[in-house]
Amino acid sequence: MSEPRTMPEVRRIVVALDAARIAEEALEAAAGLAAALQAELVGLFVEDIELMRTAQLPFARELGLASAVLRRLETSDMERALRLQAVHSRERLAAAAAALNLQWSFQVVRGQPLAAVFDALEGSDLVVFGRAGRLVQEHRAPSIAARGGGAQTERFRHLSLRPIVTLFDGSERAWHALAVAHALAATARTRLTVLVPAEDAGEFARRRQEARAWLEERDSMARFVQLLGKEMRVVLDAVRKERAAALVWHDPTAPKDRAALRALLSELGCPLVLVS
Asked: How far apart are alpha carbons 30 and 49 in whole angstroms?
């Protein structure tokens, strides 16, 4: 049994915000983790350099919402739009932090989104990514900032409806991920699902018992699901079947294998909490 004696102290929860990823669900997960782990909530807004380069192309066009007329996309227009979005993101972060009395900070950086996020991480930081493929709904009030004193399910209305899912393979990082997933599920008062990659029933039973014993010591329980392997496709299928509110994923290669992480984010239907 490789359970670590102590879990690494998490000082910051970094939530990645950019023009291509949804913010609300990821922000809710990040704020919940910051509350559970007594960590600082850090919003990182990334001005995507690829968007800036696109705006510089002579054939770049945008469709006016009011006029429905195509016009040339100017670099100044893109910069203005990104600044406005950064302001909205900061306001949302501040509201979420205030609702849970969290210490918080907000940074704006320019670069390739994944690279910029990893460059900003320090030590044992946890990072939360929103799911790709949807535009940020900046004009909705963040759900976590429900009027004072509301029920926990109101504060975490996205997380509380579906389970927090994590992958447990018995490694030290898997124990860290289990602890993070347990903390988030407990704070949001939602269910916990543990995916256990195992080649046979015996291996599954052993790993399930290890994780179950750890959870029982904390008066918690979980649903355990056996996976026949831990390839990305297998994990993604299981996450979809469980209708996860968030996936807590441990992967030591993520900072290096950006292509694999980008592929995961493009197909994942929920926020990703990365334990690396």
From this structure: 25
Per-residue b/e over 215-234, b at no fewer than 16 CB within 10 Å? beeeeeebebebbeebeeee
Instruction: List, in order, residues 6 or more apart from 176 with CB less than 8 Å away.
Output: 4, 7, 8, 250, 275
For residue 200, give both structure tokens.
């046979």
Which 3 state secondary structure label does DSSP give 243?
coil
Distance CA 122, CA 126 (A): 9
Q: pLDDT for 137-180, tens place per residue?
A: 333 444 554 444 444 556 788 888 899 999 999 999 999 999 99
Q: CA-CA distance, 209 to 130, in Å (whole number)? A: 32
Domain boundaries, the chain: 12-62+73-275
Please state the pTM of the whole predicted model.
0.82
Q: How many CA atoms lie within 13 A of 217 on its CB side?
A: 6
Fold of 12-62+73-275: Rossmann fold (3.40.50)
DSSP letter assigned to residue 8: P
What's the pLDDT tens digit per position in 35-46?
999 999 999 998
Decide if 89 contacts 46 (C-beta within 8 A): no
Q: Are 144 and 28 in contact (CB under 8 A)?
A: yes
